[in-house]
Amino acid sequence: MRSNCFQVLSIILFLSVFNISSAQSLQDRIASNSPDGYRQISSVHAGAGDMQFMGVVGADDLTTNFLYLHAGIINPNSGIGHHFHHQIEEMYVLLSGEAEFTINGRTSVLQAPVAVPCKMGDSHAVHNHTDAPVKWLNFAVSKEKPNRDRAFDLADDRVGASIDPTPIFVAGSLEKDLLRTENHPFEGNGIKYHRTLPPGVFTTNWHHVDHLLIPAGTQTEVRQLVAMEEVYYVMSGQGSIEVDDATASIKTDDAIPGLVGEKISLLNTGNEDLEILIIGIAVDKDKGLQIAKPLVEPKAMVLQMDFIVEEVNKEAFEKMYYSIYVPAMTVQDGYIESKLLRLYSEEESKEIEAEPTTYNYQILISFDTEENRRKWVASDQHQIAWPAATSLAKEFKWRGYDVMGDDVMQH
Asked: Domains, the chain, ranges and CATH?
């Protein structure tokens, strides 16, 4: 069985340290959906009329594949025309009024508050058919970071579209009667919660859409963002957010990015409920969240072998690895993978202040168990491969490790 080894914990910790150490202050991080920042735009994706619009949170505000939070007002008899994206997923959120939502050519009228995911490759549109403006949000997550995609417009404003009484697409209600006080990740007296949209709805690393209600005078227990980031949008109320050792005030229409590794708590300082929409984005939805709890038993082993190889033998040593060593291991029971590492040049090593060493090559081999590695050592193939390696080395040594966590980013 093949598996890829080494990295997620170090990557997560790196991202965490990088963000915390280099980010702006917490108060400055908070952005507000304010009409003062709106600009008017017309014929959005060939849609009818015009709307007021602003960017609230952008791709550079998080390390995951979060792309943007846009916000604004869709004017009466106006909207966003029918279009596709092939590299991003969006979600339209209606905070007030009602509008006609279209997904893949099917249209229904939805009442606020509601969230409609526009999955990657699905056509979508929204049209305010009423005589009153509607308050609107648009979240997006890209397949890769950064990838802003290029929309494919269908030249269809959806004005006068045929209406299905029952939506033929996914929609997540943000009504308060769906909120529950039990079985959720936010500890605190009387706190209510509902997972509006789960991970399976999305094909990107978009992980969840949550709806949270914190009663007056109540604070959530500290919760660490492990292998994910979140964006908190205050739907109503006022309070404060505590991130690690910093605290900042928040109010209706504020948006706050929560970064991977941060410890976060939310407090309602007002007299009314503090209602928050939460967007979660995984570092890697398929495997990143698996490291939330460290392993108790090792999942594999790695043998680290260091070699001193003189200049005259370097080319032959590298060729030996691919032509002899790897083929000899691939037929062994329990073999997982191996790596051949060549030390940086002396100049590069000095630049990064690396520890001095005379060993200039390293071979890492991984088996599912130490027992199977020892069977490899006793095999006929090892009797050929090991002398082929050591005959080209002036000196060598080795040590063994248990694998207690691993990850390899696929490219």
From this structure: 33-173 (2.60.120.10), 174-293 (2.60.120.10), 300-403 (3.30.70.100)
